[in-house]
Amino acid sequence: MINYLLIFFFVSLMTISSYAYGSIVQAVFEWKLSKHINLLLGFSIIVGILNIAIYPIIHYKLSSDIFLILFLIIICLPIFFYKNVKWLKLDSSILFFSSILIIRIFIASSRGIAEESFDTVHYLSYIIEAAKGSFLTQFDVNGSIRIGIEAVDDFSSHYYILSSIYRMIEFIKTNLSFDILTLTMPAVIWISSIFYYILSISLTFASIDILNIRNKTHQLIIILLTQFFIGSFYYNSVFSFYGNTYRTLFTGLLVLLIYIALQRNKFDIYYSILIMLVSSAILGFSGSGYLISFIVIYAYVLLVLRNKGLSNRNLVLMYVLFIPVILFVVNFWMSGGTVSISKIIFLLMFFLTFMIVTFVLKFSLQIVYKSFFYVIFPLAILLYSLRINQATPLMQDFFIQRSYTDMVWDYLSITNIRNVLFNGLLWTSVVFYSLKSKDIFSKYFIIIFAIFINPFTYPFITNIMTYDLVYQRNYDALFNTFTIVLLFGFLVQHQARNRFIQIGVLSVSIYLAQYSTINNYHSYFNPEDNYNGFNRLPQDQVQAFEVMNTKIQLEGYDRAIVVSQVLSVKGFVSDVYSVLDYNVFRSIDRFNISTTPSFSPLWNIFIPRDYYGQKIFTDEPDYENACTYLIDTKVDFVLIDSQQIYKKDGNFVPLYFSFRNCATEVYRNERYVLYQFYWD
């Protein structure tokens, strides 16, 4: 019961605080826009500020308490301005909003989180280590002490926010004498997930309001597509606590703000700071957001300069827009990230050009503007791509279906009826909007296609600006919640007299939504029979984890050494070092003929096997000496699958029998046995 109350409290706190900040922004800007956008504006301000603050905290190894205090101050500050906040009134839209939220929570609770197949344990371990460490970056996700900064992950404030919530929940449960047996991580997962669903629905409703889509049928089409089709993609549903999932959502907010600024013909310091903070928030959710932010803001700069021309003031505002990208790249490089010299040179040349333009403004304003932004820069990307492609043909890789290796949608795929329907409808909407719309924003899509997302510039983008593994994420700049509302809304509104188009789009929307919500996801997400929907784990694993977690907390372990055949232990139980590293396990090829020797005897003995006799390493497991290896490693806990067997003297024997003479059995259920070693 306490976990449910804590979830409600923290979701309410984040919702109220974010909404208050957003309401204040609207009042300052005199926007009078949809109140649904307040939540997103406010939370982007919170994350954006915190993401800038983490750079000195990490580099100077300041206490993690500083981040926690800063987070508390920022999230509680709106309490002093509550009288100035214009709150939403209870009406039919709020009831509809709540209904969608309940449906999405129900869908998520009936799906597993693929804790041993995707990056789930990696990120959950990251949250725990940030919550338990004296510094934000002290431990690796397996629990070992790390020296230095992991540049890829360590600059994501999203996970530090969740770690702060984790710390506060632990504090409340411990100091107010609540039951410490229950796991804390499931509550954190649900807080982040429910808040994501609220933000996602808010962005859909805000986009509908801002685009002035009043027709109820059109609204239904858009809501079906965004909430029950796109919203049910596995990364938007079961992985809704990932930073990468939040990244796609706030890219939509960034594009929405740019749309508003262009419609109002505004380019001032207030808009620039707000857009900068949203860009910073995107980087706070995922490091791959740096290029997405760069692409979106670059397109915005071109459109602004097309309308307003160049001036010293505009150039200063451009620098403000790019501050988060610059900060991230510089800190990434300083922290040992693999930023090639060519990437550094490219960024330096790009921003140096801005400074040069400042000095030649009075001589050749239009020439410099048109030649650089519309000719020189795009042409340089194209020519460099051709040069790279000549040495190593890469252009064909643009069409690779990357959903097999990343949390993305394949926008060019036609492999099944669902992809054909959605992608066909999407690209038709893009072409229709680009050709028919008189709006300046229609050029946004053309700019991104022409410069950044096409096979001809693919080699440059993947070699100089990012990596091929995450290239598909750049589609966020084109297709996100806001642009999908914009594109489909424009299509159905401008074909209002064509009932065939309306009925067709509505039918496709209903089919896609129905397909996603009643059909199983990939087999990885199908829960087991004893699945616990709240804890997002099988119940027998939950029980074993709770016993281990309680003993670690009550018996004063600083960091227990654990050998567990349930590799997700590191993501749910705190203060442990896992001998069987989850990330290493995922890198092992367990289904082909083995050519690799085992990393250690413990790995060979305890690595989870799918069937009896499965040979994963070239050397045979030394089951007879399992106790010796555990004692030599000073292991504190062993969590073993009771169904795993090995052959001894011609008989099949459960593996856990091997430990009865050297360890104490402290817990057993139908599936797992937990042993504990007691050391003097």
Q: What is the number of independent domains?
A: 2
- Total helix count? 24
Biggest sheet record: 5 strands, mixed
The general outline is globular
Which range best describes the helical content: under 10%, 10-25%, 25-40%, 40-55%, 55-70% or over 70%? 55-70%
| Secondary-structure class | mainly alpha
Structure description:
The chain has 680 residues and is mainly α. It folds into 2 domains: 2-518, no CATH class; 537-676, no CATH class. The protein has helices at residues 2-29, 38-59, 64-76, 92-109, 120-132, 157-175, 185-210, 216-228, 234-237, 243-263, 269-285, 289-308, 312-334, 341-391, 417-436, 442-451, 458-465, 481-493, 499-518, 539-554, 569-572, 582-587, 601-606, 626-632, and strands at 531-532, 537-538, 560-564, 576-578, 637-641, 645-648, 651-654, 664-668, 672-676. Strands 4-3-5-9-8 form a 5-stranded mixed sheet, with helices on one face. The protein has a two-stranded antiparallel sheet with strand order 1-2. A two-stranded antiparallel sheet has the order 6-7. A hairpin with a 2-residue loop joins strand 6 (645-648) and strand 7 (651-654). Residues 518-522 have low confidence and may be disordered.
Descriptive labels:
single chain, 680 residues, mainly alpha, 2 domains, 5-stranded mixed sheet, two-stranded antiparallel ribbon, 24 helices, 59% helix, globular
